[in-house]
Design brief:
Helix content: over 70%
CATH superfamily: Tetracycline Repressor, domain 2
Number of domains: 1
Strand content: under 5%
Keywords: DNA-binding, Repressor
Structural class: mainly alpha
Largest sheet: 2 strands, antiparallel
Number of helices: 11
Protein name: TetR/AcrR family transcriptional regulator
Distance between the termini: 45 Å
Organism: Bacillus changyiensis
InterPro entries: Homeodomain-like_sf, HTH-type_Tx_Regulator, HTH_TetR, Tet_transcr_reg_TetR-rel_C_sf
Order of helices and strands: HEEHHHHHHHHHH
């Protein structure tokens, strides 16, 4: 992830987070190292070396490596970036009219793939660590509920009223749609990078539609 992407990641309400140059170097180094080696296998000395700072500079503010993850990297990803990009995602995807639910699913898939490609190291850290840190899971739930859930539900109810979708609870259709898309993203970027991406996108879309389309 380049410097420009990091600067975008550190924007909140169009105002840059006030970080010193050393703090930015530490954040960038931590993101790169945690993404490459994983949290457990990365030492603070490695982060300091990559950032070009003394290890004591990190410990001046953060007592442990987990403090670094939760106090620097995760706020960067969750508190800072996630609300901003959740709002952007909602505006880019949900604030439009679609001819069909399939068109809507295609837009979600395209949007999220582009996001993951741009911010892959950060997204990779999240997937690696979310199962081990309850704070991360709770923050994600809050952000999803605050910025995405109601708009997602409204679109589903709209296409149910049009007779396109099966008479299933909106929550179930959201779950089936999201788990299929996230599953493809995890497989593509973390497990099988050499897959035929476009072909698998199309198969995933048809899999979703076969499950939620009204018969």
């Amino acid at each position: 992830m380049d410097r420009e992407a990091l600067e975008q990641l550190l924007q909140v309400n169009d105002q840059e987070v006030k970080m010193s140059e050393k703090q930015q170097k530490i954040v960038m180094a931590a993101i790169e190292m945690f993404s490459e080696k994983g949290f457990a296998s990365t030492s603070t000395s490695e982060i300091a070396k990559k950032a070009g700072v003394a290890e004591g500079t990190i410990f001046r503010h953060y007592k442990t490596k987990k403090d670094l993850l939760l106090s620097i990297v995760m706020p960067t990803i969750i508190n800072t970036a996630a609300p901003k990009f959740a709002k952007s995602f909602a505006k880019e995807v949900f604030d439009h009219q679609y001819e069909s639910y399939e068109d809507f699913v295609r837009e979600i898939l395209s949007n999220r793939f582009a996001f993951v490609k741009k911010y892959f190291p950060v997204v990779k850290i999240y997937f690696q660590e979310v199962f081990y840190h309850e704070e991360m899971r709770n923050l994600f739930k809050t952000i999803f509920n605050d910025h995405v859930y109601e708009k997602f539900k409204q679109i589903i109810e709209y296409f149910k009223e049009k007779g396109e979708l099966a008479d299933l609870p909106a929550e179930s259709i959201i779950r089936m749609t999201i788990t299929s898309i996230v599953g493809l993203i995890i497989t593509r970027f973390l497990i099988s990078e050499d897959m035929d991406e476009e072909q698998e996108k199309e198969r995933t879309i048809q899999f979703i539609m076969n499950g939620v389309r009204k018969r």
